[in-house]
């Protein structure tokens, strides 16, 4: 059955196997027809009032790219072996964001699947794949997708994607997909050819026309996007979605499209559980509140505040959108306790108030990171955090991030301190490439350190820029100390009963200009954990008048883990608490646990 919405046309036909078949128009503006004797692999295109050929907007595969014909795909052909897989819920997840094209040298699903075992051993529980909807060209980030049901040919065919998911499930990991429902890409975008009702002039986005979710004739538009979310969950056994830039999804309907998309994804997964996470730049916690509370029912939100404060703490850089952050110990403690720092206060960078209250949200709802695709690329040269700060601060920041109560998100290669940059890249035809280059240059002007003199940045539309971003897995061995640090922290997070529970049963205190302590409370306070962090110089606390440093009765603190362990490239950690007071090592993080106090036996002399 061929079916397409083209409400402004009178004649719609489909050409398949060199034969043209007329579709019958229905009152709803849909055209449909049953065409016998078609099979998987057949190519087809639509003609609209004699104009065409055009690809199917709901094509499952575009073997020749977005400007070519669509291919019939049988989604039932793949032999799944994940029948016992129960899906994912957000608590206790460790998410790993990757871009299929640069994650491996080969840049395809098969090569990426071969690395999944190593990620499982690291402690990753869920893979978050950057967008894969078909786009123009042979490389790109994926946020300019134009065929939203078609996995891009650049990484393989649809069954290669299914095999990747199946392999992940076999290793005990889920897979989330980053999807873009706020705009359609500029090249290969045929939506308006079928009907201009897909878009609205009532709103604008930074990247293209806004989607019509609440204007005239918006019903089929809503159906299309809800069906797309359900499609990825059902036909690819995905465990959830990450919704890009939801602040640019505009809807004044009684029930917001985000609520429809989320509930549609959950229905498609039944009886499995799925996770729906949003990027929302203005930090509207309404997104994750239940529908009964007037929200949209999503599970989690990306937390830029955590990233920005940590960047200032580790690098000292307060340019551009870091200007409202101090990177102080109090900021970092507040991030751990309350998620967002800005929950309605004025935000000088944007000259308006930012955020909504998050005080009553669950800690796991905050997806925290110190690297992600945007933030690494936005450094101008695509530099990773360890290239922007000292190794000591980098290790300390990693400990705060991975042992905190939020949901940690790693960016590809971060776990072994990859030296590969992650730059902005997009393969476009020359005219569009020039616009992309101009736009990228204007965006980077916000960084004064980059804008001084002649601004230079890697050519976005060059294949060389894309190739530079590919990971080198030999660095797992070359940077074995930092790889071990990530692996051990994730094991501690999973195995320790206090770090694993993701509750707010902890408190923190500032100890110095760049130092703080967080105490994770046990039920009786007899088996608490201390996380001591110092981004600055060695700190002597005499007196140490801070209650959180006091050990349980008849106990003393003992080091459980330290970023200065020699196996992480450190120089060792002496006792922090002694008769001389507390000594907090410089640029380090130390985890302590209580042990029974040992008597010191002295000789008579």
How much of the polypeptide forms β-strand, as a percent range?
Answer: 15-25%
In terms of structural class, how would the helical and strand content be classed? alpha/beta
Estimate percent helicity.
10-25%
Indicate the radius of gyration in whole angstroms: 26 Å
Number-wise, the strands total 30
Summed up, the helix count is: 16
Q: Kindly identify the CATH topology of the largest domain.
A: TIM Barrel
What's the CATH C level of the largest domain?
Alpha Beta
**How many discrete domains?**
4
CATH architecture of the largest domain: Alpha-Beta Barrel
Poorly predicted regions are: none
Q: How widely separated are the two ends?
A: 97 Å
Main pleated sheet: 8 strands, parallel, barrel
Q: Going across the biggest sheet, name each strand in turn.
A: 9-10-13-16-17-18-21-22
Instruction: Give the full name of the CATH homologous superfamily of the largest domain.
Output: Glycosidases
Q: What overall form do the CA principal axes indicate? A: elongated
Mean pLDDT: 95
């Amino acid at each position: 059955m061929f079916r397409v919405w083209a409400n402004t046309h009178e004649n719609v036909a489909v050409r398949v196997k060199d034969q043209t078949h007329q579709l019958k128009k229905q009152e709803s503006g849909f055209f449909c027809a049953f065409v016998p004797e078609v099979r998987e692999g057949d190519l087809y295109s639509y003609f609209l009032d004699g104009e065409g050929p055009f690809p199917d907007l709901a094509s499952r595969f575009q073997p020749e790219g977005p400007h070519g014909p669509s291919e019939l795909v049988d989604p039932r052909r793949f032999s799944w072996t994940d029948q016992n897989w129960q899906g994912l819920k957000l608590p206790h997840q460790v998410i790993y964001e990757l871009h299929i094209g640069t994650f491996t040298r080969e840049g395809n699903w098969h090569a990426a699947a071969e690395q999944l075992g190593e990620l499982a051993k690291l402690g990753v529980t869920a893979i978050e794949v950057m967008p894969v909807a078909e786009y123009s060209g042979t490389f790109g980030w994926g946020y300019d997708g134009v065929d939203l049901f078609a996995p891009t040919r650049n990484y393989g065919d649809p069954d290669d994607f299914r095999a990747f998911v199946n392999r992940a499930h076999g290793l005990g990991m889920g897979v989330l997909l980053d999807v873009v429902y706020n705009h359609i890409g500029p090249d290969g975008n045929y939506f308006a050819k079928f009907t201009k009702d897909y878009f609205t002039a009532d709103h604008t986005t930074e990247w293209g026309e806004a989607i019509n979710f609440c204007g005239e004739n918006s019903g089929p538009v809503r159906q299309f996007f809800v069906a797309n979310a359900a499609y990825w969950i059902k036909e690819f056994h995905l465990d959830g979605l990450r919704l890009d830039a939801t602040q640019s999804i505009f809807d004044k309907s009684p029930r917001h499209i985000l609520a429809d998309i989320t509930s549609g994804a959950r229905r498609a997964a039944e009886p499995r559980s799925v996770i729906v996470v949003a990027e929302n730049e203005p930090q509207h916690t309404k997104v994750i509140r239940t529908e009964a509370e007037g929200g949209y029912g999503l599970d989690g939100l990306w937390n830029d505040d955590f990233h920005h404060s940590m960047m200032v703490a580790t690098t000292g850089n307060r340019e551009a959108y870091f200007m409202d952050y101090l990177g102080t110990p109090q900021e970092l403690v507040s991030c751990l306790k309350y998620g967002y720092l800005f929950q309605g206060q004025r935000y000088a960078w944007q000259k308006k108030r930012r955020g909504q209250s998050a005080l009553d949200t669950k800690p796991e709802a905050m997806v925290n990171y110190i690297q992600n695709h945007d933030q690494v690329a936005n450094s101008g040269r695509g530099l990773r955090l360890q290239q922007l700060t000292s190794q000591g601060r980098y290790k300390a920041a990693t400990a705060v991030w991975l042992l905190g109560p939020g949901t940690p998100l790693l960016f590809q290669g971060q776990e072994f301190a990859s030296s590969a940059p992650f730059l902005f890249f997009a393969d476009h035809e020359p005219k569009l490439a020039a616009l992309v280059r101009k736009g990228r240059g204007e965006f980077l002007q916000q960084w004064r350190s980059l804008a001084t003199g002649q601004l230079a940045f890697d050519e976005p539309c060059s294949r060389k820029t894309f190739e530079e971003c590919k990971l080198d897995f030999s660095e797992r061995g070359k940077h074995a100390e930092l790889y071990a640090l990530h692996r051990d922290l994730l094991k501690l997070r999973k195995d320790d009963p206090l770090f694993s529970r993701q509750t707010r049963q902890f408190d923190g205190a500032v100890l110095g200009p760049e130092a703080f302590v967080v105490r994770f409370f046990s039920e009786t306070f007899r088996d608490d954990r201390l996380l001591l962090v110092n981004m600055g110089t060695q700190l002597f606390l005499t007196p140490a008048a801070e209650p959180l440093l006091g050990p349980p009765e008849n106990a003393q603190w003992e080091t459980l883990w330290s970023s200065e362990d020699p196996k992480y490239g450190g120089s060792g950690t002496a006792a922090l608490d002694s008769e001389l007071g507390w000594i907090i090592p410089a640029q380090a993080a130390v985890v302590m646990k209580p042990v029974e106090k040992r008597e010191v036996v002295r000789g008579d002399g």
